[in-house]
Write a structure and sequence with these properties.
By secondary structure, the protein is of the alpha+beta class. The protein contains five helices and seven strands. The two termini are about 25 Å apart.
Length: about 210
């Protein structure tokens, strides 16, 4: 596929660090291509164009991911406590100031997927649901009150933002996923029209 060829070409020409390692042998493919890697997530949307976002994420930040399957009787304070305590536990390991992505609901896989997907939203972009938007702001304030600061060296800015995405859940479970991204928050997006024209989108664009 063209995407795999592009990844291999970018790895060689930019160059990109080779990060595709066999989990059992430890052998690095050297191309950033391996079983199910790069992971390509896609969805059908309205319109007649294709938007592609490349979202490289460092291992340190990925190691800051977390999932908790709460009892469905959980209250909001317990969820907030889990998130803030996890950020405290990570400290400087995730290269703060971070963007903290939260996925609530769905199944375990959906919660983590939503958490990572939320990281694609621009800094300051609040959830359209006012209740969830307020929770984003409250969590951002609580996380920054921890004093962890940039690179864990202390300060008022531990997180640049908190983004939350929500899915309906099964009555018997209440999953909450956390995905963290470092201050660099690298990504790039293009839009390909049905005529083959390519438009590069600014990293700060609301289209991201």
């Amino acid at each position: 596929p063209a995407i795999l060829k592009a990844v291999e070409r970018a790895t060689e020409n930019i160059p990109l660090r080779a990060n595709a390692v066999d989990p059992f042998t430890g052998k690095n493919t050297g191309t950033n291509i391996g079983n199910h890697i790069p992971w390509i997530d896609w969805s059908l949307v309205k319109g007649n164009s294709c938007k592609i976002t490349v979202f490289p994420k460092g291992g340190g930040r990925e190691n800051g991911s977390a999932l908790k399957m709460f009892n469905p009787t959980v209250d909001l304070d317990e969820i907030k406590k889990f998130i803030v305590e996890h950020v405290i536990e990570m400290g400087g390991k995730v290269c703060p100031p971070t963007v903290v992505g939260i996925g609530i609901g769905g199944g375990s896989d959906i919660a983590l997927k939503l958490a990572k997907k939320s990281l694609l939203r621009p800094i300051g972009d609040r959830n359209k649901n006012k209740t969830i938007a307020k929770l984003e702001i409250d969590l951002l304030e609580e996380i920054n009150d921890t004093g962890i600061g940039p690179m864990g060296l202390g300060g008022d800015t531990t997180a640049l933002d908190v983004h939350i995405e929500v899915a309906h859940r099964h009555p018997a479970s209440f999953p909450v996923g956390i995905a963290m991204q470092c201050w660099a928050n690298r990504r790039a997006t293009i839009i390909i029209s049905r005529d083959g024209d390519v438009e590069w989108i600014s990293l700060n664009s609301k289209l991201l």
